[in-house]
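Justification of resources, computational component.

The compute hours requested in this renewal are based largely on the per-chain cost of generating structure records like the one below. Each record pairs the submitted sequence with a full structure-token output. That output is archived, and it is also reused by downstream analysis tasks.
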Amino acid sequence: KDCYAALGCIHGRWRPVVGRFKDYIAMPKFNLYQSLHTTVIGPAGKPIEVQIRTREMHQRAEWGVAAHWAYKDGSPDADVDWLNRIIDWQAEVSDPAQFMQSLKTDLEQDEVFVFTPKGRVITLPLGSTTVDFAYAVHTEVGHACIGAKVNGRLISLDHQLASGDTCEIYTSKVETAGPSQDWLGFVASPRARNKIRQWFSRERRTDMIEAGREALTEDFRREGLPVHRMWKSEQLEQAINEAGYGDFDALLAAIGEHHVSARSIALRVARSFRGGDGEEQLPATVLRPRRHSHTDKVGVHVEGLDDLLVRLANCCTPVPGDEIIGFVTRGRGVSVHRADCANAVSLMSDHAMRLIEVDWDGETSGAVFRAGVEVVALDRSRLLRDVANALSDHHVNIVACDTATGDDRVAKMRFEFELADPAHLEAVLRTIRQIDAVYDAYRVLPGTAPLSSTG
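The structure output for this chain reads:
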């Protein structure tokens, strides 16, 4: 109160310079500095800067925040808030050097005071942008920030704020919204910078988990293991524990980071799955003899042949419902093709004597079928992830993916995956077609011309 009274006396005696008054008592700096600053036109017309503060404020200005605790009647609330903020930064930043740089920046920088639409004051370092403001309001507001309005005008995200500005943030309604790497080039506050880095660190872990899953799937397949059964098997749990990882995601992330070999895990699981206690064996590939016909584990009925291996051709990957034909191979049993498969057409003309009649018998329990789909969509951020998540929600196992985007921003994605129930394929396609920005999704056959960017 005395400081403001003194200010009134000074302004009554000398004319103040407009725009040079700063009230650090009502709005202290982050380091708890408090004072009134003003500039007046003094004798002989020369500007004079005046600083007004109490003895306690002066002690703090000269000796730092530690001096404040020497006063018995002082209120430590502001100090506690500032120290709590430092503790939060320390928890968010794992690198000690980065933490010290953030603290140094906070102590050295001047501040700007910006208002929310409801009148709340947000204190930010000088040079802060609307993105810094968004993160100061709330971390999730920062992550979802897509635009801002300052003093009633729409402005860019890299717009620097000034004291007295009123800022309103617009956020995305998309659940997967997140920051941009470009923001790190213009944010000024340690909080915003640390939160953005933290978000991308989590995103990178997610990517590494997916990379690890793909690598382990490939090695499981090389070992002839039933991939769909392996993910929840006791053998895999045992391998995770033996490798010293706390859970499956930790193992997958380590594989994605190349800290552990997917091959070594697959071999360990395969040894346990095939041998060991002998309780669990790989599914038999040669079917038991039948009197007049043969049915394999994918539900294909071959009339009149016993003890022959029956397999679905990789060139066209038929699924129940497709029209099929059989071809008796040399040493590899009966190969089952789609009737419209290019290889099948060639076999019909060149080796007609080795063709055999086959059909689906409906018994597909425990079988896994391979199918391919192509997705056409307008390219956008996280499109690939949304489609992959849709496939994952239907419990299909993605084994291959190819993408291409033309100059017209039309993206084409081709997925090859395994599914237990081929009748479920249409439901998968319907789900993909409902994804934002997807134009169409349809089944394609292996051997279809590769994707290429156009436009």
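Residues 254 and 260 are 6 Å apart (CA to CA). Confidence is low (pLDDT under 50) at residues 68-75, 276-296.
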